[in-house]
Amino acid sequence: MAAEGQAAASGAEKKTLREGAAVILLDGDNDVFYNKAQVVNRDLSIAVLRHFNRVRAAEHAEGVWPKSNRRFKGGGAPGSPLLPHLVPPPPPEPNPASDEPREVAAGEAEQAAGEAAEAAKVDDQGEQQGDQQDEAPKPKRPQELRPMRVLEGLAASGLRAIRYAREVEGVGVVVANDMDEAAAESIRVNTAANGPVAQEMVIPHHADARVLMMTHEGLFDVVDLDPYGTPVQLLDSGVQAVADGGLMCITATDMAVLCGNNAEVCRSKYGAFPAKAKHCHEQALRILLGCIEAHANRHRRYIKPVLSVSVDFYIRVFVRVYTSPAEVKRSSLKSSYLYQCVGCDSYLFQPCGRETKTNKVAPGYGPTASPTCSDCGWRYNMAGPMWTEPIHDSEWVTGVLESLRAEPERYPGYDKVHALMTTVSEELLDAPLYYSMHNLAHTLRCAAISLPLMWSALINAGYKVSGSHANPLALKTDAPNHVVWDILRCWVQEHPVNSEKDSPGAVILAKEPELKASFARAKGAFSRAKTEGIPRFINNPEANWGPKARAGRPVATLPAPMVAAVENAQAQLPMRSAKTAGKRGAEEPAPSEPNSKVSKAAGTAENE
Question: What pLDDT does 283 receive?
């Protein structure tokens, strides 16, 4: 494979870049669509798709099939060039009068898709009668498992699509789409540079991803959407394009919006208000999952998250999509509103729905919180609604982790992906959000308690506890707020502090603890990864590790004389003393970034 990439590059005298089993060409124009920082995203996606292939094979062997819904018709637009690749043609009928093989035209694939859509249509006879007809009997199991049909809606350079084709077993076709004409041409060039396997399996396509997904309803087993910014404009068509039981892989990079810096924008895009709190990265995941569920519900579908991660500057979720009007009615049981105290770290959830004794779903009872916080007396801010069911599937996490450890050499970003998945594997699934250990100490103005001691106190009190992949200082627990504060009150009794009068910390410490905390070292006070010496949080491999500018954005450059003048001026600056250097240390020079604006704007890549 290396020879193929080098040969392709040497013939045209172009620079090549290799990632995994794929090669892309960098010629000045083509390299704008490559983002090195997303190698973790791509490696993780490949590991997830490999596990998904095994899950599909196991379900096929056991005859476990998602319930089909005849209202969800499936099909494609007549005349679409993708139909021959997505819809298998009917088997040729034997013709005894002729020994010549019968050629199957692309039009027959369209006809087969149209007939399947017409056969699946049912008349609505009212909501109640329609719901009874929605769930049809299980389809007869085919003799062979159909290869996966993958759509990468925003393919940019096509690197991810090529890696899917060359590195994931069970993939039959990968549609690499981009609405940018230059990107679509880049996909064609890179596909050709990766040999006949990539050329056969990767189908370059130039179209608006929303139109493509709307016109190929239910025809993809995997839909991968990795936009620059928010994915919300792609979700409605995305949940329709994926087949029943299929996998959606979705990225969001607008973290400032999801983490509470632009609450009104988050409400308009995602349908939820964010809270400004230390658990903002997990909150971002839950807001995105709730938004995907809401879009799926409009089409009588629902989601099941299998893996949700916060990495560097973005979040990435993997969800399976199923069709069931009965399950859609229970969607309100999976989301809640959040009451976040503005004085301390206490938070409460208000479920949107509840289940009655007759197994019906009704509006939730409320409010679950008083007007002021019972711990510090300050007010609450409301946020949500957001997803409060588990954001991971433990079996999937274990399977993905096994895939990584089995062949670490196949993942360029193995160290960071493995560290991420190791931390995810230890998270509590039934404890939404988390506390920040430093913020808890800051509220009380006390010395920070170590994680092993805090974990021991919670375990000794009979509660579960874990960390979070989103924050190395996170504390996830099923203990209520007052138990956490009782443990810290006991800690402060052994380590006295002088709190400011009328501050939230002073109000909390003024109460006597109802729980007598035991800080004796408990079994499980250290994570398994730490006990086994497995790193959980890996530093970025190089400086300025982050997203590039959006593709198509003009690059701002400074004239060479101006750059030289800035460099000369900074070279003449005196060394910093220990007093002026502060946290940077004594005699350390100031950071030299003469052309930082240029470096930030130099990359104009799509988020690929």
Answer: 97
CA atoms within 13 A on the CB side of 389: 20
Contact 392, 308 (CB under 8 A): yes
To which H or E segment does residue 93 belong? none
Mean pLDDT to the nearest integer, 434-459: 95
Count of Cβ atoms closer than 10 Å to residue 488 Cβ: 23
Question: Is there a contact between 556 and 599 (Cβ–Cβ < 8 Å)?
Answer: no
Alpha-carbon span 155 to 145, nearest angstrom: 26
Q: Which of 49, 321, 243, 56 lies closest to 161, judged by CA?
A: 49
Q: At 217, which amino acid appears?
A: E
Please give the Cα distance from 284 to 202 (Å, whole number). Answer: 33
In this prediction, residue 293 carries a pLDDT of 98
Mean pLDDT of the chain: 83
| Span 402-411, pLDDT tens digits | 999 999 999 9
Contacts of 449 (CB under 8 A, 6+ apart): 437, 440, 441, 488, 491
Q: What's the pLDDT band for 524 if we cut at 50, 70, 90?
A: confident
Tell me the torsion sign for CA atoms 418, 419, 421, 426.
positive
DSSP state of 139: P
pTM strictly above 0.85: no
Residues in Cβ contact with 200 at an 8 Å cutoff, skipping those fewer than 6 apart: none
Rounded mean pLDDT, 286-308: 98
User: Which residues make Cβ contacts (< 8 Å) with residue 574, sequence separation at least 6?
Assistant: none
- Summarize pLDDT for 65-82 with one digit per residue, the tens: 655 544 455 566 777 889
Q: Rounded to the nearest 10 degrees, what angle do helices 39-62 and 414-425 cross at?
A: 60
The whole-angstrom separation of Cα 559 and Cα 109 is 57
User: Residue 115: how many CB atoms within 10 A of its CB?
Assistant: 12
Q: What is the pLDDT of residue 543?
A: 75
> What does the alpha-carbon distance between residue 430 and residue 237 come to, in Å, rounded to a whole number?
31
Three-state DSSP at 449 gives: coil
Q: Which residues pair with 340 in a beta bridge?
A: 347, 381
pLDDT of 223 above 90: yes
Judged by DSSP in three states, 546 sits in coil
Can you tell me the distance from the alpha carbon of 395 to that of 386, in angstroms, rounded to the nearest whole number?
24
Q: What is the C-alpha to C-alpha distance for residues 353 and 324, in angstroms, rounded to an integer?
A: 18
